[in-house]
Design brief:
The structure holds two protein chains of two kinds. By secondary structure, chain A is α/β, with parallel strands linked by helices. Chain A has helices spanning 41-56, 77-92, 104-107, 116-121, 123-129, 140-150; strands spanning 2-8, 12-20, 26-35, 62-66, 98-102, 130-132. The longest helix of chain A has 16 residues, at 41-56. Chain A is globular. Chain B has eight helices and 15 strands. In chain B, strand 9 (218-220) and strand 10 (226-228) form a beta hairpin. Classes of the chains: A alpha/beta, B alpha+beta.
């Protein structure tokens, strides 16, 4: 089964594609970034929507997204833009693809006792659980969503 | 059980293109309105050769159907004439013409070039995602609908052989990656290269792109074939970020080229916004024009690239041409390279 996990920032969407192995590890197939166009955000969202729809139309069965969550402090523009772009992403997922949204606080509970940010920094943990396509450091948080959804 | 011969109500209007395969005609269809028909003719082919040609055309049509996408020409149907001497692939008609028709005007408008190449790259990315190649990307095969939406057309995907597209006076080898010319090996990277050369062509217009002499963008080999020069001289208003992206798309060494169509779209997405200069290139003068509120900014470069009395000047004026105010002029007595560099600096220094 091919699954894609997603991390969204205010100006890019990181997609990590992988398939699950029987030994609770993930073989990575792709780690890619979709950059939001410079300039008018409304026009850039239209382009991003098309790109995401195209990408997810080709053999993807499930998508895992880190869910939006309110913070302790009032959200700055960057956070709001991230939420907008996450909305664009969610609306672009084809109806044949199932979507799982995971809260950050719940992500690591399924496979360990530490917080997600600890696992992201742990090279040995990453090497132990992921093989295949070379994972960029900036994509680790998205990749860990794959582990969380597997359990 | 009897069979019924259904008759398609297509009405031929006029020819709109031709190529090695046959011709393309404009038809009227009662449901779709204007449609393009790619016509394959039996001519003096043997029965076997004709059946093979029809099978090949049908494969192309099926491939197009499999690649249905907003930036790929849509296929409607295939039909044969009752006399069985003509086979038609009936497709969406792109009334806005091809990118070649834009480059031929020698009007260069960077925002349009970016949009068209980006949309073509998105279509091509989808094609690659479906494990197909286009194999013949060039300005003639990037089409525009009446409302300027971009569509990739004329696929050679039904065969392992490189298929020639619409006839073009320039020869398509210019758009082929070096590895295609040497090894006849098409790949996703060779499609990237072809799209890159098309981008360069759009950033130059045909005149600047194809001219020979000082700073020529393409050079003619001993065999008469054109290829990209090792260093590309762009029009001076093309920003360095844009030049770098275009250069990386059409790098001769495939290993150093932008690695995928998705990466191409990202590169184009990151291009900074530019001032919407209207640039027109002709044989002796290049002009730029930009409307800013109630004023027009104009730049003219006369006798460009080293001809006698080469000079450029920039000024602002009212929209009716009155109240002219000089902005900058070319330094006197300098080389053509210095003229080009000073103009490049002029455009780069503008804040917008």
């Amino acid at each position: 089964m091919t699954v894609i996990s997603v991390a969204v920032t205010s100006d890019e969407i990181i997609l990590v594609e992988g398939s699950y192995n029987d030994d609770n590890t993930v073989t990575l197939i792709m780690d890619e970034t979709f950059d939001l166009e410079d300039g008018d955000r409304q026009l850039a969202y239209v382009v991003m929507h098309k790109r995401i729809y195209d990408r997810l139309s080709q053999g993807v069965e499930q998508v895992i997204v880190k869910a939006s969550a309110g913070g302790q402090y009032p959200a700055k523009t960057g956070v709001l833009h991230s939420a907008e772009l996450r909305g664009v992403f969610l609306s672009a997922v084809p109806p044949t693809v199932s979507v799982t949204q995971l809260q950050k606080s719940a992500v690591s509970r399924t496979f360990g006792s530490r917080k997600v940010d600890d696992y992201v920094k742990d090279d040995a943990f990453i090497a132990e659980h992921f093989s295949g396509y070379r994972l960029r450091k900036g994509s680790r948080e998205a990749a860990i969503l794959l582990l969380a959804a597997m359990a | 059980m009897t069979t019924t011969d259904y008759v398609a109500s297509l009405r031929r209007i006029r020819p709109i293109g031709d190529g090695a395969f046959g011709e393309v005609h404009l038809f009227h269809d009662p449901v779709h309105g204007e449609v393009a028909g790619k016509c394959f003719f039996k001519g003096d082919k043997t029965e076997d050769a004709w059946e093979n040609a029809c099978a090949s055309a049908l494969t192309e049509a099926k491939n197009l159907k499999a690649l249905e996408h907003s930036h790929v020409v849509k296929i409607h149907q295939v039909v044969r004439t009752q006399s069985d001497d003509e086979f038609l692939i009936v497709m969406e008609y792109c009334a806005g013409g091809s990118v070649r028709q834009i480059t031929e005007t020698n009007r260069v408008f960077l925002p349009d070039a970016k949009r068209i190449i980006r949309d073509a790259a998105m279509g091509l990315s989808y094609i690659h995602g479906a494990k197909y190649l286009h194999r013949d990307i060039k300005p003639d095969n990037i089409l525009l609908t009446a409302d300027k939406r971009v569509k990739l057309g004329d696929f050679g995907v039904g065969t392992d052989e490189i298929q020639f597209g619409f006839a073009t006076p320039y020869g398509t080898a210019l758009y082929w990656a070096p590895e295609v010319l040497v090894d006849k090996a098409c790949s996703q990277l060779s499609d990237v290269y072809s799209l890159g050369v098309t981008f360069v062509n759009m950033l130059c217009g045909d005149y600047w792109f194809l001219r020979q002499g000082k700073g020529a963008v393409v050079r003619e080999g001993k065999d008469g074939e054109l290829s990209l020069a090792p260093t590309l001289l762009y029009l001076p208003h093309v920003p360095i970020t844009w030049r770098n992206v275009a250069n990386k798309l059409c790098r001769a060494d495939a290993a150093g080229r932008t690695p995928s169509l998705s990466a191409v779209v990202n590169s184009l997405a990151r291009l900074p916004e530019v001032e919407p200069w209207e640039c027109v290139v002709d044989g002796s003068t290049i002009t730029w024009s930009l409307i800013k509120k109630q004023r027009r900014v104009r730049v003219e470069w006369h006798n460009y690239l080293g001809r006698p009395n080469e000079r450029w000047s920039a000024w602002t004026e009212n929209l009716d041409g009155s109240s002219r105010r000089s902005l900058q002029e070319s330094p006197k007595g300098t080389t053509w390279k210095a003229h080009h560099a000073s103009l490049q600096a002029f455009f780069a220094s503008r804040k917008h």
